[in-house]
Write a structure and sequence with these properties.
Number of domains: 3
CATH superfamily of the largest domain: Multidrug efflux transporter AcrB transmembrane domain
Number of helices: 14
Number of strands: 15
Order of helices and strands: HHEHEHEEHEEEEEEHEEHEHEHHEHHHH
Oligomer: single chain
Distance between the termini: 23 Å
Structural class: alpha+beta
Largest sheet: 5 strands, mixed, barrel
CATH class of the largest domain: Mainly Alpha
């Protein structure tokens, strides 16, 4: 160790380094897991589905209407993806009337397509007559009526007038029935807003007991319950009594279908219909190959830099290499801690960070050479080098960090993946050159390995 005792600042430096090591061990090393389980991976690494959605009728709108419609559609799609639990998705504008949707790690692409493309127009209508089987042939008695069908093909004659829409809902959740006779049946519980509950209560009072009310989603009758005396009596008592009393159910409704339906109802209807114009599926094997190649490129770059620093600076190069290791722990740990998505472009940012990390140490080492030539001792040269190089190191890294932030907030897709790892790498670089590197040189005694020839002396 160095000749002088540890100062408070030295203990803080040592404590921060130990904290990084412990945090990295908890996040990365303990327990040992595959890369895909340690951090979130992008579409190019994990595989998944890439969809290009085309909005119908947008091309005929004005520029302002196009922007508003596409923005509202994107917001609803994001809400659906959030409520459905799709991870690491990316939804952004892709031209004047198109939307790009990237969903990594999707195990059921068809389910994702249904969720994204569904318009979800929910309506409540009065039932005039209900069939019993799909073979029944029902005919409307007037032009104010029409025939709709259930998912199993049973015809239902309903009024064309819509009594209530999905706009009256405030929430939709999946639940499992505990009632005798329907035990275990999956259903979607509809929760009305206050205004919606008041409207629903009025509808129930107007229809009366014994009347059937059809719950129609995108022109398909989901269910058509008979209004019982109990719900009519509850409606007479006020909106609070019917706010959570309506469900969409059916013996054939699967848990996944109910989850999708609830997510769509919570997010609301899309302002326009969307068609899937393009679809690209990336298999998990291609993603695994990308991970393998990316990890290999990082490993090769890391080893080559280690060898180069040892060859150029001898044992003093160990300082830069240890600082580089710390920077990798900070970058990877930051990606995990902040839930950032690692992409192939992000791996490129990590590889770039490897070179930039030692670059700051090279500035310090070359400055030490200049200070030694003025006659300073090795330890004094180290301190002078840091004092005079601090501005250069912070300025050069600050400008790159600002560029990374611009890419992060303005860019999209691969640009953001690159920006995230680059920003973390730059922050780690500044920390490592000022904390671990300086501690090792000043307090851990690495200043003793400064070559004598740097002072114009022979070894």
């Amino acid at each position: 160790m160095a000749q002088h005792g540890m100062t408070r600042g030295d203990w803080l430096r040592l404590g921060s380094m130990l904290a990084i090591i412990v945090a990295a061990a908890l996040l990365i090393l303990i327990p040992a897991r595959p890369v895909k389980d340690i951090m979130k991976l992008g579409l190019d690494l994990q595989g998944g589905v890439r969809l290009v959605l085309e909005a119908e009728g947008v091309a005929a709108m004005s520029s302002e209407e196009q922007t508003d419609t596409i923005d509202r559609t994107i917001e609803i799609l994001k809400n659906r993806s959030d409520t459905y639990g799709l991870a690491n998705y990316e939804i952004r504008r892709y031209g004047p009337d198109r939307i790009l949707v990237s969903i990594p790690g999707v195990t059921d692409p068809e389910e994702a397509r249904r969720l994204i493309g569904q318009t979800a127009v929910l309506e409540f209508r009065r039932v005039v007559k209900a069939g019993v089987a799909a073979t029944d042939d029902l005919v409307p008695s007037s032009s104010s009526q029409e025939v709709l069908y259930t998912k199993t093909g049973i015809p239902i004659v309903v009024d064309r007038d819509v009594l209530l829409t999905g706009a009256a809902l405030s929430n939709a959740t999946v639940k499992t029935s505990t009632q005798v006779g329907s035990m275990g049946e999956v259903m979607v519980l509809l929760t009305f807003s206050q205004e919606g509950a008041e409207q629903f209560a009025q509808v129930v009072r107007d229809l009366g007991a014994g009347q059937m009310l059809a719950i129609v989603l995108d022109d398909v009758v989901q269910s058509y319950p008979v209004l019982q005396d109990s719900i009519v009596a509850a409606a007479r008592q006020g909106w609070r009594e019917v706010q959570n009393s309506t469900t969409i159910s059916g013996a054939s409704m699967a848990a996944g279908e109910a989850k999708t339906l609830a997510a769509v109802l919570r997010a609301g209807a899309l302002p326009v219909s969307v068609n899937i114009a393009e679809e690209t599926s990336i298999g998990p094997s291609l993603g695994s190959d990308s991970i393998r190649r990316g990890m290999m490129s990082m490993a090769i770059g890391f080893v080559l830099v280690l060898i180069y620093m040892f060859a150029l600076y001898g044992r003093l190069g160990a300082v830069a290499n240890i600082a580089l290791l710390f920077n990798m722990l900070i970058t990877v740990g930051g990606l995990i801690a902040f839930g950032a998505v690692l992409t192939m472009a992000g791996i490129a940012g990590v590889v770039l960070t490897i070179g930039m990390s030692v670059d700051s140490n090279i500035i310090i080492f070359e400055r030490i050479k200049e200070e030694r030539r003025t006659g300073k001792t090795a330890l004094a040269a180290v301190r002078a080098a840091y004092d005079r190089s601090l501005a250069v190191i912070t300025d050069t890294n600050a400008t790159t960090f600002v560029t990374a932030l611009i890419l992060l907030f303005v860019g999209s897709g691969p640009f953001r993946g690159f920006a995230v790892t680059l920003a973390l790498g730059i922050a780690g670089t500044v920390y490592c050159v000022l904390i671990p590197s300086r501690y090792l040189l000043e307090r851990a005694g690495f200043w003793r390995f400064i070559p004598a020839r740097w002072a114009g002396q022979e070894k």
